[in-house]
Amino acid sequence: MKLSQTLPGLKLKNPVMPASGCFSFGKEYAQFYDLNRLGAIVMKAATKDSRFGNKTPRVAETSSGMLNAIGLQNPGVDNIINEELPFLDTFSTPKIANIAGSTTEEYEEVTEKLSSHVDAVELNISCPNVKEGGIQFGTDPALASEVVRAVKRKSKVPVYVKLSPNVSDIKGMAVACEEAGADGLSMINTLTGMQILKEKRKPLLANNTGGLSGPAIKPIAIRMIYEVYPHVSIPIIGMGGIETAEDVLEFLLAGASATAVGTANFHQPLIMPEIIDALPGILEKYGLSSVHEAIGGAHDENIASSLYSS
Amino acid sequence: MNLRNMKVAGNRKIAADTYELKLYTGPDFKTSPGQFVHVLVDPPHYLRRPLSVASISRDELTLVYKTFGEGTKTLAGKKIGEEINILGPLGNGFTFPEEKRVMLIGGGVGVPPLLELASDLHEMGKSIHAVLGFKSEQDVFYEEELKGFAEVTVVTEDGSYGKKGLVTEWLDDSADIFYACGPNPMLRALLTELEIPGFISMEERMGCAIGACFACTIETTDGGYVNVCKDGPVFPKDKVVLP
């Protein structure tokens, strides 16, 4: 069973990687399994300077999911390069750096510093939890276009753009990013949500709102990927509530070329190696002979889109 | 890193909305006082629940939890012989003292980690005074268990059992060091009240509980930050800014 594939900048031995922000910089999960087993490693968002993030409570459980408002906490791009990357360099797994910022200049600066150390960058224009954290770029196609063009000029590696589901026209955003030069898309980031603490008659999270993730959002992710796939010719890394190899296959069929696992890591720390182990059997069960064969399989064969393949 | 299914050996109510869960650990499960485990609850509840270790014997782990919400209520329904997935032990526990006279201060569901600590301190020959605060008589638990190792003062807010008031009104002036676990307002009051050295055990909502998600991050007094799960949950009293 062929699980491997090549996407821009990434030689993936399988289509499973962590979602940014759920895996820090890898050390914690390396206590559970060899990170070389993963298709790729996606790092926590990097900003120019270190950020503390929001006050606690930062997380709340919801039915089949969770809300989080961490607030892009990270040690800053220089510390990431000096303190975190040396550990990840001990693995042969491709590395993707997630890049956040509050201005186009910050995105450019972080990209310039970080991109030469990794195999691809993921442009985070969709964090819902900070006032000036990029979501404005992720909800306006013209601004998205501008930041993608700027980052493409600075980046030494392919650029994937992580899209926000908090928009009315996801297809328009995806097309704008592709036209601006994006090499791939990641979708979806979390959906903005809120939980009220009844005893206090106030929002539970210190940030009031948070990003909803987990199995609760999977149908939305599947729908958005299915909607975008026929209109772009760049690969999609799909994410949103993945817990099993069956879920991975569903994302592939919707049009994703690879997948990322986020919240499920908290539920079950060994989830990614378990999914990778189960995937060949699941592909076989549904009559498929490779990951590549599954991509976009839920669409009509005669759609205009040229399937990304290499 | 330890991730395993443990069989329920007992699950009983010990006070209002408060349950004591005993689990067979299987071989080679070691923990020190103040550490916690991350407990998987039934769907649709998605996040694990961080619970402090109340005591550990050769192959039996005791946890205490309050059924504040629906997730912990599913735990209360667990019968003997059923399995529960446990991640841990996690975090850093209490540092043992040089000092002779030790005061343990627990507030409500903050009492459990002090039991295993008291047992170890008792074995070390320390003189121990435990001051335990609860809302009301129906909430009181572990008084008898702690009496095996310590002098115990129980304080209830409404005076329905033991002394009346808050733990801060019944502290032991003769102690050389303190160890406290309880709600943040209690910890805050203790830090103002007590000049002796001490350690506090923090509670915070957690995601991964291994330091990867930054859900339980709090500020330190020197302007940095720590994750309660990985750097704590026990901290020296001056280390962190209480949220």
UniProtKB/TrEMBL annotation, chain A:
Chief localization: cytoplasm
Enzyme Commission number, as recorded: 1.3.-.-
Active site: C127 (nucleophile)
Cofactor section: FMN
Pfam families in the cross-refs: DHO_dh
Cofactor note: Binds 1 FMN per subunit.
Keywords in alphabetical order: Cytoplasm, Flavoprotein, FMN, NAD, Oxidoreductase, Pyrimidine biosynthesis
Chemical reaction(s) catalysed: (S)-dihydroorotate + fumarate = orotate + succinate; (S)-dihydroorotate + NAD(+) = orotate + NADH + H(+); (S)-dihydroorotate + A = orotate + AH2
PROSITE patterns tied to this protein: DHODEHASE_1, DHODEHASE_2
GO cellular component: cytoplasm
Record-stated family: Belongs to the dihydroorotate dehydrogenase family. Type 1 subfamily.
Function, in words: Catalyzes the conversion of dihydroorotate to orotate with NAD(+) as electron acceptor.
HAMAP family per the UniProt record, alphabetical: DHO_dh_type1
Name under which the protein is recorded: Dihydroorotate dehydrogenase
Gene for this chain: pyrD
Automatic annotation (TrEMBL), chain B:
Domain of life: Bacteria
Binding positions ([2Fe-2S] cluster): C208, C213, C216, C229
Entries under HAMAP family matching the protein: DHODB_Fe_S_bind (MF_01211)
Pfam families: DHODB_Fe-S_bind, NAD_binding_1
Molecular functions per Gene Ontology: 2 iron, 2 sulfur cluster binding; electron transfer activity; flavin adenine dinucleotide binding; metal ion binding; oxidoreductase activity
Stored SUPFAM superfamilies: Ferredoxin reductase-like, C-terminal NADP-linked domain, Riboflavin synthase domain-like
UniProt KW keywords: 2Fe-2S, Electron transport, FAD, Flavoprotein, Iron, Iron-sulfur, Metal-binding, Pyrimidine biosynthesis, Transport
Span of the signal peptide: none
Gene responsible for this protein: pyrK
Cofactor note: Binds 1 FAD per subunit.
Protein source organism: Salimicrobium flavidum
Protein name: Dihydroorotate dehydrogenase B (NAD(+)), electron transfer subunit
Upper classification of the organism: Bacteria, Bacillati, Bacillota, Bacilli, Bacillales
Pathway membership: Pyrimidine metabolism; UMP biosynthesis via de novo pathway; orotate from (S)-dihydroorotate (NAD(+) route): step 1/1
Family: Belongs to the PyrK family.
GO BP terms in the entry: 'de novo' UMP biosynthetic process
CDD domains xref list: DHOD_e_trans
Function recorded in the entry: Responsible for channeling the electrons from the oxidation of dihydroorotate from the FMN redox center in the PyrD type B subunit to the ultimate electron acceptor NAD(+).
Cofactor(s) for this UniProt protein: FAD; [2Fe-2S] cluster
Positions with a binding annotation for FAD: R49, P50, L51, S52, G71, T72
Domain FAD-binding FR-type as annotated: residue spans: 1-96
The protein's assembly and partners: Heterotetramer of 2 PyrK and 2 PyrD type B subunits.
